[in-house]
Design a protein that fits this description.
Helices cover 37% and strands 35% of the residues. By secondary structure, the chain is an alpha+beta fold. Strands 2-1-6-5-4-3 form a six-stranded mixed β-sheet. The relative contact order is 0.12. The model has no long low-confidence stretch (mean pLDDT 80).
Length: 196
């Protein structure tokens, strides 16, 4: 008789543990489904092509830095805005003039190869508008034998628009986190893009 009672208790424990395990599985499944529904929609061929074009623009733009041979105006519209460490430049002409002034400064700097590394690039496309954000790191290679030197690092937040099939910067917000040039000492603001 003791064996039957023990068997009955074992069955109750199995049912109790089985119910608890089933409950745990159902809760886990619900959490997975909830997380899956929070993910962004699946990319389309068009949005992937747009992302690739935007990435090419950003990489091409940064590849021209320090080259002395550039046309930064081609990346902007006449009404584009560039916010650089608290200074505001409005329109393609003002932005071109800014980069021309950098050429004068860079001519007086030490020679070597300057490169920008772009990391954590996030691009979100919504029709003919997009946003991009990234971390940039400036690296100077002064000579072949020396180690590369980190010059500067910061963040960038872009708003882009597509006009006649071509992507342009509508607004760029560039914020240094280290290596801030002296010319920005009075204007520096740890600014991220405005919420609209």
């Amino acid at each position: 008789m003791g064996g039957q009672k023990e068997m009955k208790n074992s069955k109750q424990r199995i049912i109790h543990h089985g119910t608890g395990a089933l409950f745990t599985v159902l809760i886990s499944f619900a959490a997975i489904m909830s997380a899956a529904s929070a993910r962004p929609p699946t990319a389309t061929k068009e949005s992937l092509l747009d992302r690739m074009q935007i990435q090419d623009i950003i990489i091409g733009y940064y590849a021209e830095l320090g080259s002395g041979d550039h046309n930064f105006g081609e990346y902007f519209l006449d009404d584009s805005v560039f916010l650089l460490n608290g200074l505001k430049y409005e329109g393609r002409d003002a932005i071109e003039a800014l980069y021309a002034s950098f050429d004068d400064i860079s001519d007086n700097m030490s020679r070597g190869r300057f490169r920008m590394l772009l990391t954590n690039l996030q691009i979100d496309v919504n029709g003919d508008t997009a946003t991009a954000s990234m971390i940039w790191t400036g690296v100077m290679n002064e000579d072949l034998k020396g180690a590369p030197k980190l010059q500067e690092q910061g963040r960038e937040y872009d708003t882009l628009v597509k006009r006649n099939g071509v992507w342009y910067f509508q607004e760029r917000v560039v914020v240094a986190d280290s290596g801030l040039p002296d010319m920005f000492d009075d204007s520096y603001k740890d600014a991220e893009p405005s919420e609209e």
